[in-house]
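Handout, section B. The chain below has 98 residues.
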Amino acid sequence: MTENARTICLHARIRGRVQGVWYRAWMEKAAQSLDVSGWVRNRRDGSVEALLCGREDAVRRLIELAHDGPPAARVESIDVEEVADPPGMSGFEIRPTV
């Protein structure tokens, strides 16, 4: 198996001006275009949280793209952790704020 064919799940916390700028909808569309599964949601602290699962190259590309996000977003930081025991995921969804 090549490095790019490895499947991974990353938990990401995106901070900055990322709410009220269509960030979640942008991420859903970007994830679907890269065939990445998972979810995205707003957090009450103003950040956005996401779980991204799929081929390693696609997931890492989505994290790269997330640093820019949609045009009105201003991403200050993204904290990423690999999920050791990822849940079975299919599709991508926007979840309610927590």
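Note. Helices lie at 23-33, 56-66. Compare this with the example in section A.
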